[in-house]
Amino acid sequence: MKLQLYLFSAMSYLLLTNQEEHILGTMFGYFDSANNSFIYDDDYKESAPCKMHVPGFNSLALMVVYFIVFVFSLMGNSVVVYVVCSMTKGRTSTDIYLMHLALADLLFCSTLPLWAIDSHFGWIFGNFPCKLFSGFQEASVYSGVFLLACISVDRYFAIVRATRVLSSRHLLVKVVCGVVWLTSGLLSLPVAIKREKIFAPELNQDICYDNLTSESSDQWRVNIRVLRHTLGFFLPLVVMTICYSWTVVTLFNTRSQQKHKAMRVILAVVLAFVFCWLPYNITVLIDSLFRGGTLTDTCEARYRVETTLEVTKVFAFTHCMVNPVLYAFIGQKFRNELLTVLYKQGLISKKVWVTYRKGSVSSVASIKSKNTSVSM
Question: Is 354 found in the same domain as 216?
Fold first, then answer.
């Protein structure tokens, strides 16, 4: 988490005005495929266009930050997937969900190198990669929040309803994960279809952007954003809030320390997700209200929203590397499993392995309490 805050501070510091500045209309315009040119919202409104400029991130610094996030996310989430796959026994339904969550983060971080290069050199990868990786990014965000909602429901039945998590249920969990990935893929199709490599004369470079007409520009973006807000964030957030509120109340009424420890990592993962993505989603929602005409559209308001979007987007993108850090620092069982994997691979000595595992669960009986245990 400290690394994420450091990167966020660095990006805030590197918000420079002496770099290439973009006219505010660039983000609020659309591409006219008939005339092969950009047209901005202000060009066809009766009001005078905004003459102010929005300061851009230092493109080189932004590229470096994206590559740093990519490296840490790739290493951390790969370790999570490997550790869960290496479990010979004791794998719970939550383990499977968390492994798929790590896969979603891996899918998301796989797109970062391209966006990093795009931030500095423009889109140089062609039309098909533009569609493909835009779809990957969209699907990974949907699958991540859906999996968090599934975990909250799983913990509700395990703790509140005291439903035993039997190995026979693993097939059902895998089916649910399959449905999550399929749904996320379908929801990402509109973005993948509309996104194209387009030359932006104002930037003198190619960009990966939605190819829309003037009649459908704002309506399309508002509809896509409503879909993202409802299905991709706020509705799953409501499910998580209800399930975890009920679960926390149940935990307060029991003295079982094992049950309390079972929720630490999961709650930390959910809070990290909300902390990283909520500011960006709120900002995008405000921008959508401007586009839909619900809020009064002024140059000053556009300036503030556009600047906030740039900052919160970078902060949201760093989320893909946060979960492995939470597992390592909060999840005692995950640390033990990781040490076991390292010991079996000969990377650490038996003395280090035994010493580190002294803080693990003291009794085998408590570990076998499948109805409340969380592997991380």
Answer: no
